[in-house]
DNA sequence: GGATGGTTGCGCACACTGTGCGCGGCATGG
DNA sequence: CCATGCCGCGCACAGTGTGCGCAACCATCC
């Protein structure tokens, strides 16, 4: 146990310093995202994060007020992965909205912990990235012809759908990957039980059977696209009604 | 410190037993919901829950496998508060869907912690109440004329929207109530900062200003209703397109 | 030069968490 | 009457977020 340098003796490397970029908010946030992607939200602890950066747990508190603030930073950072396409022509609002919705969903599936965390960070966060995004996304709907007040509500509607859907998908995905089995194995295992549970209503089993052979990821993609089209149809109806 | 009865002496009430219904799964779940409603999710601990029931923390483990299972039970229990109206006429599917969406949102605002927890309990739960509900809700859309496969997807779309919207509302509500201030005070305080942040895009401030004087709860109700109508319009379009 | 003051990393400690283990009392059934 | 099961509980362990104060560094100024 004496190997811990109680005294920085002469031959102990005085630590060239700066060999590591040391700690910084950006670095901490980046490593936190890495840890979250690899191990999930409930495995993120300040101690573990510190260890991953060859640092003590409490050292992080020099750069981050507390864990909640860290999470706010992390969430805004992943929002930064999203980009809203520049509005080309007003007629293309539907393609633009589809693209934004798709990239938001993709981001939430890439970082499955985001969904579980969104409910906890209130709107108090509204980091710079999210602020920029919502502004750019608003522009899409305004260009489409929605008045500002409507554009705001329509945008929230679409985002709510995507977040709701993707959160549920991500929870499922985390459950699957944590079990070690593949998604297809999981549904194959769950399917007979579900069918049995709905034995009295044979029709309820039909959607399950219909997608029994297909790649579950494709099924999820289709379901998402179906709902997205439905919501966009609703937006279009609103737009037509002026 | 000797007051702890190391030995149950004769004059120590041998505890008439059964004076309390003691511990039971139902009782535990009910108290957990009470604690969650009062203090929020991060304040729920087995020790605190035990104390609230005049019991030790670990006593609960006789009836509940672990905290995660408790939460699954609790979530299914609050799903039990929802009721799906009996299908009257197929034409009334829209009213029926509106009613279900509204009661789901109301439940999630009554129990603001539900949203934060939904992302964590995967579909692994699917307790009896949720199973019953989705079956009954499916029936509404089938009666409306949707084929089974479409009814399933349309239902998921609607639910995703409601959950996404209500989760965000609930997070905001929890933030507000935890601060002690009223919702109106909060927005009044936040408004100038938001307007300043969007100084370069004056039109972005318009939605904020438009609702500056109104009761925030009414604004939220309106926004939810607006999005709900939009989604239902999309469903109607799908139905018309057969 | 040397002193000074601010910044950074860290060890320690505290209050708290979920939960496995085993004890001792209780109710029931033979 | 004893035996068998159940139930509540105290103890203990590993792990958490985080406040406090020390030690080492850096840049600045006398």
UniProtKB/TrEMBL annotation, chains A, B:
Pfam families: TetR_C_1, TetR_N. It comes from the Bacteria. The lineage of its organism: Bacteria, Bacillati, Actinomycetota, Actinomycetes, Micromonosporales. GO terms for biological process: negative regulation of DNA-templated transcription. InterPro entries: DNA-bd_HTH_TetR-type_CS (IPR023772), Homeodomain-like_sf (IPR009057), HTH-type_TetR-like_transc_reg (IPR050109), HTH_TetR (IPR001647), Repressor_TetR_C (IPR004111), Tet_transcr_reg_TetR-rel_C_sf (IPR036271). Residues 22-82 form the HTH tetR-type domain. Keywords: DNA-binding, Transcription, Transcription regulation. GO terms for molecular function: DNA-binding transcription factor activity; transcription cis-regulatory region binding. This is AcrR family transcriptional regulator. Residues 45-64 bind DNA.
């Amino acid at each position: 146990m004496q190997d811990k340098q109680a005294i920085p003796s002469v031959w102990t490397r005085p630590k060239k310093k700066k060999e590591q970029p040391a700690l910084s908010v950006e670095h901490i946030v980046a490593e936190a995202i890495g840890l979250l992607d690899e191990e999930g939200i409930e495995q993120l602890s300040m101690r573990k994060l510190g260890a991953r950066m060859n640092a003590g747990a409490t050292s992080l508190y020099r750069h981050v007020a507390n864990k909640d603030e860290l999470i706010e930073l992390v969430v805004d950072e992943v929002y930064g992965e999203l980009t809203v396409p520049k509005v080309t022509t007003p007629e293309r609002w539907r393609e633009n909205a589809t693209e934004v919705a798709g990239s938001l969903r993709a981001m939430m599936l890439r970082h499955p912990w985001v969904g579980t965390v969104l409910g906890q960070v209130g709107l108090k966060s509204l980091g710079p990235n999210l602020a920029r995004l919502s502004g750019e996304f608003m522009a899409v709907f305004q260009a489409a012809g929605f008045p500002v007040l409507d554009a705001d509500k329509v945008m929230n509607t679409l985002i709510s759908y995507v977040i709701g859907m993707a959160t549920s998908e991500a929870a499922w995905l985390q459950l699957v990957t944590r079990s070690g089995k593949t998604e297809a194995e999981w549904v194959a295992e769950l399917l007979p039980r579900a069918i049995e549970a709905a034995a009295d209503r044979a029709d309820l089993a039909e959607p399950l059977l219909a997608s029994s052979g297909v790649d579950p990821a494709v099924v999820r993609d289709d379901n998402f696209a179906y709902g997205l089209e439905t919501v966009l149809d609703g937006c279009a109806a609103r737009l037509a009604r002026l």
